[in-house]
Structure formats: C-alpha cells, structure tokens
Amino acid sequence: MPTTRATTQDRSAVRSLLRLWPYVRPVRARLLTAALVAIVASCTGLVIPLVLKWLVDGPVADRDPAGVWLGALYLLLLGIAEAVLFGIRRWLVARPLSRVEAGMRADLYRHLQRLPVAFHDRWASGQLLSRGTTDLMLLRMFLAFPLTFLLVNGVTILVGVAIMLAQDWLLGLVVLVPAVPVLWTCVVFEGRYARVARRAQDQVGDLTTLVEESVLGIRVVKGFGRHRSQARAFDALCADLRGTELHKARLLATIWGVIVTLPELAIGAALVLGVIQVADGDLSAGTLVAFLSTALALRWPVESIGFLLAMSQEAATATERYFEAMDEAPEGGPAGEPAVGPREPAPEPAVLQDAGLRFENVRFRYPDAAPDSPPLLQHIDLHIRPGESMALVGATGSGKTTLTALVPRLHEVTSGRITLNGVDITAMPREELREKVAVAFEEPTLFSTTVGENVLMGAPDGTGADDLDRALAIARAEFAHALPEGTATRVGEQGLSLSGGQRQRLALARAVVGRPEFLVLDDPLSALDVHTEAAVEAALRRVLADTTALIVAHRPSTVLLADRVALLSGGRIAAVGTHQELLRGNAEYAHLMSGEEDPR
Ligand SMILES: Nc1ncnc2c1ncn2[C@@H]1O[C@H](COP(=O)(O)OP(=O)(O)O)[C@@H](O)[C@H]1O
Ligand SMILES: [Mg+2]
Q1: Which residues sit opposite 362 in a β-bridge?
Q2: Which of 119, 376, 377, 407 to mutate to test the pocket of ligand 1 (most atoms within 8 A of CB)?
Q3: Which atom of ligand 1 is least distant from the CA of 394?
Q4: Cβ(376) to ligand 1 under 6 A?
Q5: Which domains are delineated in the chain?
Q6: What is the rounded distance in angstroms from the CA atom of residue 109 to the CA atom of residue 125?
C-alpha cells in the first residue's frame, strides 16, 4: 500500500477546513446570507414561547376565546415564517455548493492528469477515486449543513439561554448546569472521532482499489479460479470497514447519549422547581410555559451538535485527503526538475553532431527504489543519428522500458541529460517534447471510445481520415475497417474486446499517425505472429526512413529492422553496432538472440 496515510492526531480540524477557503470564497456572500436567514428563522422559532406566555397569562387566564384564536393565528404565522425562511436558506446554498463541489472535482482531475508517472506508480487508483467522489461529497454536505448550523445553532442556543434567564434566572441556571459536562464530552469526542473517521475513509479507498483491480483483472481472476480468494479479500476489507463504522457509531452513540440525557434531566429538574414556584405564587403559569417551551425548542439545536461535529470531522478528514493529492507537485514543478546534473543555460543551435536523439551520461534510479541499491541505469551514452533507427536489446529487467520512458519524460533522469537535435529535453515545453516524440508501449492502452479516436489521439487535432488510413496501413491494422462500424466502432473498456495483437497494432498506428520526428517503441510487436510482424516491419521501414527511432526489440527479425543495435547490460550501453557485428563480437548479445530461451 502506498504511503498515503497521514497521522491525523496532531492536526486540527479547523486548520484543515480553512484550506477550503479559496473554493468557498466565490460563494461566500451567498453562504453568509443563507446563514443569516437561518439565524433569523431559528430565532423566529424562539418567539413562539413568548406568544405562548402572552396567551396563557392573557386570553386563557381571562377566558377570552377571541384572544385565543388571535394567539393561535400568531403562532401559525410564526411557524409559516420559520418554514419559509429555512426553505429560502436551502435554495440559496444548493446551487452554489454543487458548483464548489464540481470545481474541486475538476481541479483534482486536472491535477491528477498533470502529476508525473512516478506519483501514479505510488498511489493506488482506488485511493484517488474515493478522494474524487466520497470525500468531495462529504465536503459539499459539510458546507451545506454543519458549517451553517454550528453557527446557527450556537446563536440560537445563546439567544434561547438569554430568554430563559430573563424569564427566571434560577430556572435558567438549573438548565445551564449540564453545559460543562456536555462541552467536555464534545472535546473528547472530537479527538477520537477524527482518528476513526480517517481510518474509515482510507478503508473505503482500499476497498475501491480492490474492486477496481478485480473488475479489470476479471480474466485472471476467472482463469485461475481466484474468485473465492478475491471474495475473501473483499470480505476482509468489508469487515474492517464495518468495524470502523461501528466504532464511529459507538462514539456517536456515546456523545448523543450524554447530549440528550443531561439536558433532559436538567429540564425535568427545572419543571419540578417551576411547578413548586407557580404553586407558591412566585411565578406566573405563563412564564413557566414560556420557559419550558424555550427549553424544549433548544433541544434540537443542542442534540444536533453531536452529529454536526461528526460531519465536520469527516469533512476535515476529507479535506486532508483531498489536499494530500493536490499538494503533490505536478510535472514541470520543482519535483519535475532533474535532481542533479548541470543545466545548459540556453539551448544551442543544432550542430550536425548534436542532431538526432542523444543520451549523455544518463543515470536513473526509481525514486522508491531501496536507498542503498545502485541506480538501474548507471551510465547511458547513446547517440541515434537523425533518420536512423536503433534497436535496443537487453535481458529482461535490464531497464529497457525505463530507458524509453525517459525520452518523453514520463520519468525524470536522475543525472545527465537527453537531447533532441541538441536541445535538452528538460529545456523544452512538455507539449513540444511530446509532439516531437511519439511512443508505443508493450502494453497498449486503449480508451473506451472509437478505434479511430484511439488512433488519432497520437495526432494534432484536426488530422484527417487520410492520415488515419495511412497509419492503420503502416501498422497493418486494416482489420479496423472490417469491424462492424469500421473505424467508428467503439472498443470496450481498455480495448479488451480486441486481441492483444490488434491492440498493439492500434497503439503502433497511434504512434505513427502524427508523423513524429522521433519514435520510441517499447517492444511494440511482441504479440504479433511472425507473418504479421514481417508485414508491419516492411511498412515501418518506409516510415522509419525519415524518423529517428529507438525500438526495444527481442526477436532477431525485429532487430533486423533497425540500422544499428545497442545492447543494454548492467545499467550501461555495453555495445553498439549492426546486428551482424554484435552477433559475431558480443557473447551476451549472441546468447540473447540465440532463442535458446525467451529473453522476455
Ligand atoms: N515504477 C517502478 N518503480 C520502481 N522500480 C521499477 C519500476 N518500474 C520498473 N522497475 C524496476 O526496474 C527494473 C527494470 O524494469 P524495466 O525497465 O521494465 O525492464 P525491461 O523493460 O528491460 O524488462 C525492474 O527490476 C523493475 O523491478
Ligand atoms: Mg520492458
């Protein structure tokens, strides 16, 4: 599991939630208006007991039916006003807050697209998914509800207490006694709930990851009869999550119990005391009615504090989780710069010997590799001349895929530099770099859209059907025209409705459709049969005539496509030459090419 978990203990919920301000700022006026409306609505409710008092001490005591009806009318109007005001509040916040949520989600998505591959290597996709969905929903709910109501209820409680004290200060003090233990409970609850809420949200992320993997890997799961063990793993994660949720429920039950019971006891005591006072003639019946109905009207604001705090805590956790992803530096940021190595101040004009693709003393180690391990690529010096195609050969795990990923800057070199026509790739904008360099990977990734759109992804916008057909022809992917709807046929999720070789050929077509200056192919023909491979090679040879290409290869037939071959071994380019030269002069190469064992 990636190191995405933070310790929440020392972090204050308020500080986390303050980070939401930039998103909330645009809607602050609305939120504030809504809060004021809610405060007015809530205090309207508190006027009702005062009308009751007037009713009991006035018309009821005087046996005046017309006065009673009038009082009832007042009560009805107050009730309607309260309801309408709360309705207005809801109307005020609903739309702006869904915009806040949508904006944050869009930002997260945009950020995830810009984060380097190294980040995605580290983070489980389910963790990202749950941050973009559940966590943001929690945030919207927090802004809509607890944020306003902690304020509204706080004000209501203060106003209510003031009214009660004004009615009868002794009864008022009796009702206030539980405030101290209730506050203490809230503080303790906050700390405990924060930890459990974080655990629950992380576990949702783990669960999402497992579901996603087993859906994407359904062929392996079925093929190896692993559905039982997958189900067991799922059950275990569910049981963990259930345990955490029950823990949350227990904490809520405790605070709820305290928050409900203590005030009820106090109200009961006040009732007894008040009745005695009324019997002694020290207090009017109307005042007691007003006092008690105020106390009862405050029950909801007080009781709701428990779950409002719980929701706020969850929202604070969600904010932390959201910003953990957002705080990661995107490509091109400080983390995108090479760690060591001299930087040329300005790109020099291309001199002939600099033209082409050049690796200069390139070292690379994965950021998450063991600290004492040697770099995977120790000293790569390689020059691929313009228009030349270079095959890259090496044992499995020697770092061929890694080396190819350095060219489009999917990973950053640890030191040394890579130049295209003499220009350091770190000195050119990424868009320009990725326009110049086209890539195809051994594992071809297709998106759930049409075949044509998948291929045209590799070309500038507006590339026409001619180029599409040409690219499909080069990659020997004419099968696309025979699909039910031709190139407009939609491929299933990840293109799994196609064969591995078909997917590879579409990925290859995508690499060549934009007529790139530089082509980097990581074993793009591995899933093709020998005849198709030969046909693709013949077509590729024509393309490669004016393209500078680096091609990872395994079979002699693919190697023969290239002008020269480089052997990657022990983190270095151990030898460069033609296939025949290396075959004669390099034992390791001869062994790799001998076919005695599958080098992959
Ligand atoms: N994202 C990664 N993080 C850490 N190590 C990696 C990562 N990807 C590959 N490696 C390691 O780098 C080594 C070389 O991998 P790779 O470049 O894929 O080799 P090849 O393509 O030559 O078979 C392997 O030992 C692999 O474990
Ligand atoms: Mg590889």
Answers
A1: 380
A2: 376
A3: 22
A4: yes
A5: 23-326 (1.20.1560.10), 353-594 (3.40.50.300)
A6: 12
Q: What pLDDT does 353 receive?
A: 64
For range 257-265, the mean pLDDT: 89
> DSSP states of 435-487 as a string?
HHEEEE-SS----SSBHHHHHHTTS-TT--HHHHHHHHHHTT-GGGGGSTTGG
Matching residue, tokens 């308020």: 14
Which sign does the torsion angle of CA 234, 237, 240, 241 carry?
Answer: negative
Q: How confident is the model at residue 8 (pLDDT cuts 50, 70, 90)?
A: very low
Residue 581 half-sphere exposure toward CB, CA atoms < 13 A: 9
**How many C-beta neighbours within 10 Å does residue 248 have?**
19
Q: Which two tokens stand for residue 260?
A: 């409900």
* pLDDT for 597: 47
Give Cβ neighbours of residue 318 (< 8 Å, ≥ 6 apart).
131, 134, 135, 136, 138, 139, 142, 201
| Pairing verdict, β 423-424 and 415-420 | antiparallel
| This prediction's pTM | 0.77
In sequence order, the β-bridge partners of residue 392 are 552, 566
Give the integer Cα–Cα distance in Å for 439 and 514.
Answer: 11
Task: List the one residue out of 330, 319, 430 whose CA is nearest residue 110.
Answer: 330
- DSSP class of residue 498 equals S
Using the structure block, give the residue that is written with the tokens 């957002």. Answer: 326
Q: Is the pLDDT of residue 1 over 50?
A: no
Q: In degrees to the nearest 10, what's the CA dihedral of 104, 106, 108, 109?
A: 160
Residue 400 in contact with ligand 1 by CB distance below 6 A: yes
Cα torsion 487, 488, 491, 495: sign: positive
Q: Is 281 left (phi over 0), alpha (psi -120 to 50) or beta?
A: left
Distance between CA 420 and CA 358 in Å, rounded? Answer: 7
Evaluate the CA torsion angle 245, 248, 254, 257 in order and state its sign.
negative
What whole-number distance in Å separates Cα of residue 494 and Cα of residue 104? 27
Distance CA 101, CA 63 (A): 57
- For residue 145, name the pLDDT band (cuts at 50, 70, 90): confident
Does ligand 1 lie within 6 Å of residue 369's CB atom? yes
